[in-house]
Design goal:
Keywords: Chlorophyll, Chloroplast, Chromophore, Membrane, Photosynthesis, Photosystem I, Photosystem II, Plastid, Thylakoid, Transit peptide, Transmembrane, Transmembrane helix. By secondary structure, the chain is mainly alpha-helical. It has a domain at 86-249: Chlorophyll a/b binding protein domain (Chlorophyll a-b binding protein, Orthogonal Bundle). The protein contains seven helices and two strands. A two-stranded antiparallel sheet has the order 1-2.
Length: 252
């Protein structure tokens, strides 16, 4: 009997069994306590694009703090600090966009017009009666009236978005909703009227649905071409001062 008691005590004191018992107790304790896991997500910040990529500096001339890269074509170029005021920055972007669009249309018109008629672009309006039965005063008045109406509506819509897409603002249109801003972004109205080809979105069941990815790519492409067109027009003005045309300067 004493031998059996001694054997049982020896077995209980066996280090192997003690280790297993300790592991079992630890497992029970671990099951009783909830396991808290921490998930750390590391996101790399997208760096601002610079108009001088090879030169890094904190100077406002190189890296202006008021330009965060959110605007299409924003490469941090604002040496005069015109965009320090957010309200002015919005207005300057609108002005750049509108002037760039006019410049793109003008550059195309200058090349096509001269290639078709042979008349230099700066002489095209010298004799209005030669191409249309209107006097210069009538032509100028009509231009000012029509352009003044369009520009006044754009001016009002800039300060009060979507105010011009109602029936009373477009009395000649029975579908005023076609002139509403379908993208929600100033300068990019989209919709069936301003995007008839569906380049920046799709029309389903008569409703225009903008595509964010397409719009981002088109915005960047447009502002790049707009800036090139404005520079081209500046060069055309210098050439016109010397009596030259773009095609003439190219020897064509």
């Amino acid at each position: 009997m004493a031998l059996a008691s001694t054997s049982a005590t020896a077995v209980l004191k066996n280090p192997f069994l003690g280790a297993r018992r300790a592991l079992a107790n630890a497992a029970v304790g671990a099951a009783a306590k909830p396991v808290t896991r921490r998930v750390v997500v590391v996101a790399a910040a997208v760096g601002k694009k610079s108009w001088i990529p090879a030169f890094k500096s904190d100077a406002e001339f190189i890296d202006p703090s008021w330009l965060d890269g959110s605007l299409p074509g924003d490469f941090g170029f604002d040496p005069l600090g015109l965009g320090k005021d957010p309200a002015f920055l919005k207005w300057y972007r609108e002005a750049e966009l509108i002037h760039g669009r006019w410049a793109m249309a003008a550059v195309l018109g200058i090349f096509v017009g001269q290639a078709y008629s042979g008349v230099a672009w700066f002489e095209a309006g010298a004799q209005p009666g030669a191409v249309a039965p209107f006097s210069f005063g009538s032509l100028l008045g009509t231009q000012l009236l029509l352009m003044g109406w369009v520009e006044s509506k754009r001016w009002v819509d800039f300060f009060n978005p979507d105010s011009q897409s109602v029936e009373w603002a477009t009395p000649w249109s029975r579908t005023a909703e076609n002139f509403s801003n379908s993208t929600g972004e100033q300068g990019y109205p989209g919709g069936k009227f301003f995007d008839p080809l569906g380049l920046g979105g799709d029309t389903k069941d008569g409703v225009y649905i903008p595509d964010a990815d397409k719009l981002d790519r088109l915005k960047l492409a447009e502002i790049k071409h707009a800036r090139l067109a404005m520079l081209a027009m500046l060069i055309f003005y210098f050439e016109a001062g010397q009596g030259k045309t773009p095609l003439g300067a190219l020897g064509l």
